[in-house]
Amino acid sequence: MRSASILAVITAVLLASATHSQERAAPTSNDQTDDSVKKVKELREERIATLEKVVAQLADLFRTTRATYDDVLDAQRLLIEARLEATETGEERVRLYESLVAVLKARETYAEGQAKAAREIVPNVLKAMARRLEAEIHLEQAKMKLAKPVSMRGEEHRKIVVRSPQAQTVTITRQYVSQIHSHRHINVRAFERGHLEAIPVREGQAVKEGDLMFKVVPTLYKAKLDAEMAEVQFAQLEYNFTQKAFADKVVSHNSVLLDEAKLAKAKAKAQLATAELDLATVKAPFDGIIDRFHHQQGSLVEAGEVLTTLSDNSVMWVYFDVPEKAYLEYMADLNQNTEEPKIELVLADGNKFQQTGKIGAIEADFRSDTGSIPFRADFPNPHRLLRHGQNGTLLISRVVKDAIVIPQRATFEVLNKRYVYVVDNDNVAHQREIIIQNESEDLFVIKQGIGVEDKIILDGFRQIREGDKVEYEDRQPE
C-alpha cells in the first residue's frame, strides 16, 4: 500500500514536470546551443585547473610522506583523462594517451611492488594491467585516426611560432603564512599573597618603565615589618645605653661591640621585611601596553598569580616556516648577493604594512614533521598598528639578474615533470625537460634545461610530436 502511494506521488510529479515543460518554449534556438557549448568548455577548463592543483598538492604531500605514490598517480590519471575530454586535436589526443599509458605503467609497477612485499597475488596488479591495456588500445586508435589525411580529419593546424628564451632581470616573490608576536610579551604576576588594593592603570593603557601597575597589601608582611622596626628601636636604645656606660667606664668595650652587632642585625631584618613588602608593589619592567585585568580591586590574589600581560610593541617579531628547498635557495642567494631581500607584510585586510622588515633569526633545527625551518622577521612598529597574536602573509622578494625566462604557455607537463619543444638546426622538434626555479606572473624562471641560444616552440606545439620536422615563424620579443 505504501509503495503504491509513493509510486502515485512520483507519477504525479513526473506528469506535472512534463506539463510544465510543454507550457514552456522548447529551447531549440542556436543561441542556447552555443551557450551550452561555451558552458561545457568553461566547466572542463575549471575541472582541469582543479585537478592540476590536486596533483601539485599531492606531489608536495608525497615528498613529506603524507600522501602515497598511488594517490599521486591516481590524481595524474584523472587530470590526463580530463584533458582528453577537452582536447580537440588528434595530435594532442595521441600525446595525452601516451602520457596516460606511462602513468598507468607506473601504477602497475607500483602495484607489483606492493604484491611482492606482501608475498601474495593482489588483484590490484591485474586491475592496473587491464587499465593500462585499455589506454594502449585507445592510443593505437588515436594514432590510426591521426594517420588519415588532414582533409579527412577536418582539423585546422595552428601556425607554429618559435621564440628564444630571454635573459632578463626579474623579481621573485615567495609567500609565507606568518604569526605576529611582540618582541617582549610577559605575564605580570603578584609576588606575594594579599589583597589587591589599588590599580592606578587601565586596560589597554600604555605605560612607561617603572610606572606603578598594581599594589597588593600583604597583612602578614606589614606586621612583620612593624615588628622588625620595633626590634631596631629596642636595639638602638640598648646600644645607646651601653655606649654611655662605656663612657662612664662601667662596661667594657666588648659590650659596646656586642650591642652594636645586635643593632646591625635588627636593621638587616628590617631591610629584609621592607624588601618583602615592596614586592607587593608591581611596577612596569619596560614600556608597553597593558592587556585585560585578570583580577579587580579588592580581590585576594595568591603569590605567582597572573594579574595581566604587558606587551612591548615597538618591534614585532613575525614567525614563518620555510621549506627546506626554499631555505637552501635563500642561503645560496645570501652568499652570492650582498643585497638583502625585500621583506614585506600583508595584513588581514589585504594591505601591506608600511614598514619593511629584515630577517632577525633562523632557528637551529628543522621540523621533521613538516620538513621546514622556522624563520623570524623583525618589523619596526612606530605607530603600534601591529599587535601581539595577529596573523599575516609574509612576502620575501629578491631580484635575480640575467635570469632565463620563458612564457608558461610554452611548457607542458608529463608525470609531474615540465617539458618544452626545442627546434634544432635541422628544424626538427625535440622534447626537452626543464627545471623551474620559480614563477613570476605568467613566466617561468628556468634553473636548468635551456638557454638563450635555444629555440623553443611557443605556439602550436600540441600539434607536433617528438622528431617531427616543422615549418615555423620565428617571433622574437621586441
Descriptive keywords:
single chain; 478 residues; alpha+beta; Elongation Factor Tu (Ef-tu), domain 3; 4 domains; twelve-stranded antiparallel sheet; four-stranded antiparallel sheet; 9 helices; 42% helix; disordered N terminus
Indicate the percent of residues in helices.
40-55%
Quote the distance from N terminus to C terminus: 80 Å
Uncertain segments of ≥5 residues (pLDDT<50)?
1-29, 148-157
Shape: elongated
CATH architecture annotation name of the largest domain: Beta Barrel
Output the radius of gyration.
40 Å
The CATH C-level name of the largest domain is Mainly Beta
The CATH topology of the largest domain corresponds to OB fold (Dihydrolipoamide Acetyltransferase, E2P)
* Overall number of domains: 4
The proportion of strand residues reads 25-35%
* Helix-and-strand structural type: alpha+beta
Strand tally is: 19
Major β-sheet, in short? 12 strands, antiparallel
Identify the CATH homologous superfamily of the largest domain. RNA polymerase II/Efflux pump adaptor protein, barrel-sandwich hybrid domain
Average pLDDT works out at: 79
